[in-house]
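User: Before I run my own analysis I want an independent prediction to cross-check against. Here's the chain; please return only the structure tokens and, at the end, one sentence I can use as a sanity check.
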Amino acid sequence: MPRFVASRSKTFFGESRRKSAASIHAWLAKFVLHILSEIRSIMARNWLNEAKYIEYCSCDLGCPCESMADPTQGHCTGLVGFKIDKGHCDEVDLGGLTVIATFYFPRAIHHAQGVMHPIIDERATDAQRDALFYILSGADQKVGTMFQIFSLIIETIKDPLFAPITFDWDLDARRARIEIKDVVHAHSEPIRNPVTDAEHRMLTVLPDGWVFHEAENVAGFAKGTGPIRFDLNRRHSSMANVAWGPQGLTHSYKEYQQKYGRP
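Assistant: Structure tokens:
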């Protein structure tokens, strides 16, 4: 065989082998990822929570973050919480339990670097605590859903506290109250007209929202005295009915309107 033919043959077959090996490696990688996905699917827990949701933050009333603007003060601090009306994680009943978390972000939350302090209803059993932490971890949840997002943007988690939690919440009256001794004291009330002092109703509607579809905006007053400290006076607060599962909000906006009959 002429030298140049032999040389080109070696090159051709060498490249073929490399391409073949690369194809096999790519196939194996996809296969392994598929198997891992199947394992995660099998191991994933089935859960659903219908809850009363509330949040307080350091932004102005209405919170510019909801319209993709920067936080009013550059940073974001406050608390979020929910009381489960009806919920479960596999066979573990979660109805009646309350979860609160105080938080701090040095910039808008999508820049991450968040700090969070979780507080769990002291009445929760060991099985319920395990279920709640599984849900809060964002594990086995669709990308872009509430707890999955928070699992990425929270970088520091303070030791969880198990404590009595007062959670009063009346969506129609637009009033709420949260009390956790030595940690946080907060209440919400209707926004008022500065001239007439009449109650002013303001809704945030997010048909494609990842926390809620529709929320009542209210005036929030909150003081954090635990590991994360803040003092919010007539700042933003939202109240909403929510239903979450591993795929995020379980209702479309239309289904939400039909279920809750609002506004």
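Sanity check: The helical segments are 3-43, 126-136, 146-153, 253-260.
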